[in-house]
Amino acid sequence: MSAPTPVRVVHELEVLPEVDFATFRARFAAGERARVVTELTPPSHPRAPEILAGPEAGAWWGGDMTTAAPTVPPQLCAAGESWVVPAHGVIVDVNGEVFDAASYEVRHGYPTFKITPGFSGDLDFTGPEDAPYLESGAVFMPWGGLFNYGHYLLDGLTTLRALQKAGLLEDTPVVAPKLEPWQRDLITVCLPGLKVVEFSEPIVRLGRVIYADSMNHYLHRTDGLAAELGARGRETPLPAGVRKAKRVYFSRRGQVNRHMVGEWRFEWALRRRGFTIVRPEKLGVLEQVALMRDAEVVVAPSGAALANVVFMPPGARVVEIQPLNFSSQWVRGACQQVGVEWRGYVCASPCSPAKAPSLVRVHPGFQYAYQPNMGDLLRFVDAAL
Predict the structure, then answer these.
(1) pLDDT tens readout for residues 173-228
(2) Which residue in 12, 90, 146, 202 is deepest, having the highest Cβ count within 10 Å?
(3) What is the pTM of this model?
(4) Measuring CA to CA, which residue among 298, 297, 158, 320 is closest to residue 227?
(5) In 3D, which of 95, 54, 206 has the Cα closest to residue 140?
């Protein structure tokens, strides 16, 4: 092992010089630092109508519905010799500088990197001398992409698409940890033909590294890159017999963190309206894509599975049930990029934990419960049918 090195987090805007694209390519080839702002990728279809309703719609944090959700084009970033933790998106250069955008998601939960391999004490990093080495590599996966479908698709794969469009992946290998089948399948669906080098070792060393600041919660400001991924998904050949439906409900009854009181009753009412009820965590990627490609109406509580809206056809509708303390507009923003109509229903939250079943309340993953007015919510759904 090498000796521990004190590290500090640095912001790309402060330490990477902004250059034009030709200079960026030259500096990356030379193992030098640089960043370049990409052009905004336009939506694939015009913005569809939107509706915000529910008893707490006035307190929705997104603000003015007359303006579009924010979109910011990614910045492509290059650095020289560095240690990389592929599973966490962490890049540590030889001078001990950790780049902000690539590492933000893990720092959001663990500011001192206490769960990140190689780190110890108060921001010390030790790189293993026997770490695998590549002359160059592209880093794309933030920590959230390890386990969250939405962050993987809309932060990680948009990063790969931005680098791919710039022609930077033609001779630069994509670096990843050992991926789960669903992660590989999403790459196959959205970025067909892209080769990825997976490492079982927790830390690798790269002579040159590229990435994009879209690794940092790009789902909250995504542009038409998401639509381009969705278009690839809609063109993907599907296996024979895969399930399709016009009306789909993404159930969260298999999740305990945000518990909707009475969800089983809501599902019963939706079945009577012709909805197919699915638990997305039990479906493969192609099964999820198939359902979305054919759907006319999708209803779901807020959650990562709604990243699949990018695979829906233009003119389809999404009804998102948002507990007030978890309200956001990232699903709305994704819908705007693909011409899908977003309808948000904001309900009071949290309610008394006592309203959740005891087995849910005692689970270590339980966070809170909420209880929409089912009659009011069903009238809102009916208006979308």
Answers:
(1) 999 999 999 999 999 999 999 999 999 999 999 999 999 999 999 999 999 999 99
(2) 90
(3) 0.96
(4) 158
(5) 206
Alpha carbons 148 and 126: distance in angstroms, whole number: 28
* Contacts (Cβ under 8 Å, ≥6 apart) of 248: 275, 276, 278, 291, 292, 295, 297, 298, 299
C-alpha distances out from residue 211 to 84, 136, 217, Å = 11, 11, 14
What does the pLDDT look like over 63-98, one tens digit per residue?
778 888 999 999 999 999 999 999 999 999 999 999
The CA distance from 83 to 73, in Å, is: 27
Query: What number of CA atoms fall less than 13 Å from residue 161's CA on the CB side?
Result: 32
Residue 39 is encoded by which pair of tokens?
A: 């052009």
**Do residues 252 and 301 lie in contact, with contact meaning Cβ atoms separated by under 8 Å?**
yes
In whole angstroms, give the CA distance from residue 304 to residue 293.
Answer: 17
Nearest in space to 365 (alpha carbons), one of 246, 219, 255, 270: 255
What is d(CA 231, CA 243) in angstroms, rounded to the nearest whole number?
A: 20
Give whole-number Cα distances, 292 to 152, 216, 312, in Å. 18, 26, 5
* 82 vs 204: CA distance, rounded Å: 9
Residue 340: phi, psi to the nearest 5?
Answer: -100, 140
Instruction: Give me the torsion for CA of 184, 190, 193, 198, rounded to 10°.
Output: -30
SS (H, E, C) the chain: CCCCEECEEECHHHHCCECCHHHHHHHHHCCCCEEEECCCCCCCCCCCCEEEECCCHHHCCCCCCCCCCCCCCCEEEEECCEEEECCCCEEEECCCEEEHHHHHHHHHHCCCCCCCCCEECCCEECCCCCCCEECCEEECCCHHHHCCHHHHHHHHHHHHHHHHHCCCCCCCCEEEECCCHHHHHHHHHHCCCCCEEEECCCCEEECCEEEEHHHCCHHHCCCCHHHHHHHHHHHCCCCCCCCCCCEEEECCCCCCCEEECCHHHHHHHHHHCCCEEECHHHCCHHHHHHHHHHCCEEEEECCHHHHHHHHCCCCCEEEEEEEHHHCCCHHHHHHHHHCCEEEEEEECCCCCHHHCCHHHHCCCCCCEEECCCHHHHHHHHHHCC
